[in-house]
Design brief:
about 25% strand, single chain, 13 strands, disordered C terminus, 2 domains, 8 helices, Beta-Lactamase, six-stranded antiparallel β-sheet, about 325 residues
Length: about 325
């Protein structure tokens, strides 16, 4: 009877500890929208909460035309000059790279001598336990957390770290998505400003034909470079002021699986599954304002595309808006936990 009561008390203590930890990290994740600050708060809080000694948090970096890798985003009580904590790790590199590649937790209690050292008031010592957990959400790994401790982590502590890791992954995904959204908006603003500036300056220099010609060639080249960058990176849809589609670039046609002739003249609403979202975009554009948001587009057949969308009005030489530009980036939307 006494043993049963002790067991019940222990289980209740574990549940309380777990629930309090989930609340703590929920607050941390909600109140940090910048990746570096988020990483630092998370790793320091996690090491302290599980009474570990050291911790490091790696984030998956995806660069166009380059191999994906892990970069060190933050660490706690860890000497980052150690060779084992290099700035970039690729799939399969060491235990951290192995965890990323296999998408599975590693808990090492027989730590090889010299793998890492924990510094304390008594000097440097080998840890007794290394816990490495993937930051995974919806079957995709967004990073890895590595923890070192003199104590061996209990099964319930490992389970807790895995739960927190899933929440961290979701937050990282949303921060990344927000960053992409912001970049998309800035690109669209820059493009609109460049086009308007080009046309205004051309009018101002009409009397000095040779000077205007030289300026126009330079300005057009810059605008063309920006336009070319957008054309190769995003889906681009241009409409008139009544939001009838005029042209779509090759990426848009390929992604949506339509031809130019099938869509030309149709309202932009035709591509949206959510009428409320497109109405919000049209209302902003009608006020000569930019609009950015997420929506689900529909391609040919039953094809559905999750996308970030930035809309911007394009001014003519006389300063009046003559058309609208929809810059669309296909995304993987993660559900916030």
């Amino acid at each position: 009877m006494k043993d049963n009561l002790a067991k019940v008390a222990e289980e209740e203590s574990i549940r309380t500890w777990t629930n309090e930890g989930l609340v703590l990290f929920s607050d941390i994740l909600k109140n940090n929208n910048e990746l570096k600050g988020l990483s630092e708060k998370v790793i320091s809080g996690l090491v302290k909460y599980i009474k570990g000694n050291q911790g490091a948090l790696f984030i998956v970096e995806e660069e166009e035309k380059k191999e994906t890798y892990l970069s060190l985003s933050a660490c706690y009580a860890w000497d980052i000059d150690k060779s084992y904590l290099k700035q970039k790790l690729y799939a399969g590199d060491g235990l951290v790279g192995q965890t990323w590649q296999e998408q599975a937790t590693i808990c090492l209690t027989d730590v090889p001598e010299g793998y890492i050292r924990i510094t304390s008031g008594l000097g440097e010592s080998n840890p007794n336990c290394i816990l490495i957990v993937p930051l995974k959400s919806n079957d995709k790994v967004y990073g890895v957390v590595e923890l070192a401790s003199f104590k061996v982590f209990e099964p319930y502590e490992i389970s807790f770290v895995e739960k927190i890791a899933e929440n961290i992954a979701t937050s990282v995904a949303n921060v990344r998505n927000s960053e992409r959204n912001q970049k998309l908006l800035e690109d669209s603003r820059q493009y609109a400003q460049q086009m308007q500036s080009q046309e205004e300056e051309m009018l101002q220099n009409m009397e000095a034909l040779q000077g205007a010609k030289e300026f126009m060639e330079t300005s057009q080249k810059e605008a063309q470079e920006i336009n070319q960058l957008l054309q190769h990176a995003y889906m681009i849809v241009e409409t008139d002021l009544k939001f009838a589609m005029i042209t779509l670039n090759d990426i848009a046609l390929k992604t949506l699986d339509f031809s130019q002739s099938e869509l030309k003249g149709l309202g932009i609403d035709y591509l949206f599954t959510d009428i409320e979202k497109i109405n919000m975009a049209k209302e902003s554009l009608s006020k000569n304002e930019n609009w950015v948001g997420t929506a689900v587009l529909k391609g040919k057949g039953d094809k559905k595309i999750n996308a970030n969308i930035a809309c911007t009005p394009i001014s003519q030489a006389n300063g009046e808006v003559g058309r609208c530009l929809f810059i669309i980036d296909e995304i993987q939307i993660s559900k916030l936990v």
